[in-house]
């Protein structure tokens, strides 16, 4: 349950601040996120240039943005695992590997959507 008095607009403003801190953190600390964000700056205009249909654009942009979202979740998982212990543990390795695999999978899905829309 939330804190008393933390409702309505004040809760939304606080939540926006936490979201901003999260975005700044992933941007500062994750080179992969910065690389994917740079690629985003190329792919979004490219999606608009290559397509005439709004649904196709939405699919291309949306599936690519899911890559960024997945990278953020992966970074969060890594931060929690690193916070728990500095010692190696097989389950920590599994958590990090699965997070990384999720990012690659998101990229493959985005690439498949782009390929299907552009080449069929």
Automatic annotation (TrEMBL):
Entry keyword annotation includes Metal-binding: yes
Binding annotation for ATP: 11, 30, 78, 87-89, 96-97
One GO BP: phosphatidic acid biosynthetic process
Transmembrane intervals: 32-51, 58-81, 101-119
Residues forming the catalytic site: 71 (proton acceptor)
GO cellular component: plasma membrane
Cofactors, names only: Mg(2+)
Keywords, sorted A to Z: ATP-binding, Cell inner membrane, Cell membrane, Kinase, Lipid biosynthesis, Lipid metabolism, Magnesium, Membrane, Metal-binding, Nucleotide-binding, Phospholipid biosynthesis, Phospholipid metabolism, Transferase, Transmembrane, Transmembrane helix
Cofactor details (free text): Mn(2+), Zn(2+), Cd(2+) and Co(2+) support activity to lesser extents.
PANTHER family: DIACYLGLYCEROL KINASE
Family: Belongs to the bacterial diacylglycerol kinase family.
The protein's name in its UniProt record: Diacylglycerol kinase
Organism, as annotated: Thiogranum longum
């Amino acid at each position: 349950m939330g804190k008393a008095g933390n409702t309505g607009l004040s809760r939304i403003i606080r939540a926006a601040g936490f979201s901003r801190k999260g975005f700044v953190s992933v941007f500062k600390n994750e080179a992969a996120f910065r690389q994917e964000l740079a690629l985003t700056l190329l792919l979004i205009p490219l999606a608009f240039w290559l397509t005439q249909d709004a649904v196709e654009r939405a699919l291309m942009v949306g599936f690519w943005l899911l890559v960024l979202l997945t990278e953020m979740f992966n970074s969060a998982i890594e931060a929690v695992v690193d916070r728990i212990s500095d010692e190696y543990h097989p389950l920590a390795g599994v958590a990090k590997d699965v997070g990384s695999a999720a990012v690659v999978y998101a990229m493959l899905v985005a690439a498949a959507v782009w390929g299907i829309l552009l080449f069929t």
